[in-house]
Amino acid sequence: MTYQDTQRRYGVISLLFHWTMALLIIVQFMALGGYINEGEHWIGNNIVPWHVDIGLLLLVLVSLRIIWMLSQRQRRPEVHGQGAMQLLAKGGHFLLYACMVLMPVTGILLMVGGGHGLGFLGIELVAESKNEIPWAVALGEWHAQISWLFVALVLGHFAAALYHHFIKHDDTLIRMTAKRFDQS
């Protein structure tokens, strides 16, 4: 296995970023269940308390992932498709990355702007305050709307991967897994 991307496959580092973040994003989506019955259930008690910590971890990971992606841009596999399909795929990927950045940023703005402070794994990053920051709250309120767009984009991304694998029978899904990983 190679650590760097190739024209035919994504490398180990890209795969680790993709699948680690996919798992953490799914856990974050589960936090939407915290709205059900005012959080008085398993998800509300076990997932929601970690929402901010996981969000901050995802912000660090997406930042590193973007740096890695840019360093690999000449090696990365091409997006399958032509014309409108390729434009749709590239636009979808851009929007996925935008959501991966905007979700934690708007979450931070909502927390800090509302005076709640911000911590990561028990470490206080920003202290609580009695003063609200109206512009931060206003921008932070986009957090929920962006989350629903993000859910739709992830479902579309998943559906496109299955379409490529089961309908088009190409290697789009396989090159994002270690299966049949080659040295090219």
Task: Describe the SSE topology.
Blueprint: H1 12-30, H2 42-46, H3 51-71, H4 83-113, E1 118-120, E2 123-126, H5 134-140, H6 142-168
Helix pairs in contact: 1-3, 3-4, 4-5, 4-6
Helix amount: 55-70%
Return Rg in Å: 19 Å
The largest sheet is:
2 strands, antiparallel
Beta content: under 5%
By helix and strand content, what is the structural category?
A: mainly alpha
Total beta strands = 2
Report on this structure.
The structure is a single chain. The chain has 184 residues and is mainly α. It has a single domain (12-176), classed as Fumarate Reductase Cytochrome B subunit. The chain has helices at residues 12-30, 42-46, 51-71, 83-113, 134-140, 142-168, and strands at residues 118-120, 123-126. A two-stranded antiparallel ribbon has the order 1-2. The longest helix is centred in the middle third of the chain and has 31 residues, at 83-113.
